Amino acid sequence: MTPTHLPGRVAIPSLPEQTRTPPSLTALESFNATPVEQVRQTLLACLHSPHWADRIADHRPYPDVDSLLAASDEAAYDLSPGDLAQALAGETLPVLPEGIYGAAHTAMSAANAAYEAKFGHVFVICLDGLAPNEALDQVLAGIRSRLANDPEEERVVAAEELRRLAKGRLVNAVRGAGNCATSPNGAAPGK
């Protein structure tokens, strides 16, 4: 006997409610859905400016990551001198890779002290995409070259470096949001 094919749609029994797996949220959807205070803390870890963090958090939901990053740039460009000073005050020197010899730490400390004495804030530089073994040379070269800037020129350069740092940190934080990781100490790896 051959099976009879009936016209129309085939009924597929549905799974009981308790065994259905909810659809997983994308990292951006998770970022958009996270409570505002938790997102704000994540954003403050990206850039130490409450004004910037509030602006990004208040304009959620973002339709895509490019929109989020564009909003981040716009908010960073709009930082007042006071907001910029507050963001710079929350920064620290880039961490040197393990195994760097003592003279390198001394050179870094001396260069940063000269920079801080001239400009009144810690040196900031975005090292995204740079190999760890090139970080020390890049930081020292950056400090030396930027010491030649006048304070207004350096404020513009530092603001641009902060914007780049915030953007890179935000990308990492959004990736971590998909893993429910929004620690101010850094996001969990992965997408």
What are the main properties of this structure?
disordered C terminus, single chain, mainly alpha, disordered N terminus, 8 helices, 191 residues, UraD-like
The parts where pLDDT drops under 50 for at least 5 residues are 1-23, 178-191
Secondary structure tally, helices: 8
Helix content: 55-70%
Strand content: under 5%
Instruction: Describe the global form.
Output: globular
Integer count of domains: 1
- What's the Cα radius of gyration? 23 Å
Q: What multimeric state do the chains show? A: single chain
Largest sheet: none
CATH topology: UraD-like
Average of pLDDT: 81
Distance between the termini: 52 Å
CATH class category name:
Mainly Alpha
Helix and strand element order: HHHHHHHH
Could you state the CATH homologous superfamily?
Oxo-4-hydroxy-4-carboxy-5-ureidoimidazoline decarboxylase
**CATH architectural designation:** Orthogonal Bundle
Class per helix and strand makeup: mainly alpha
Number of strands: 0
A few lines on this structure:
With 191 residues, the chain is mostly helical. It has 8 helices and no strands. It is globular.
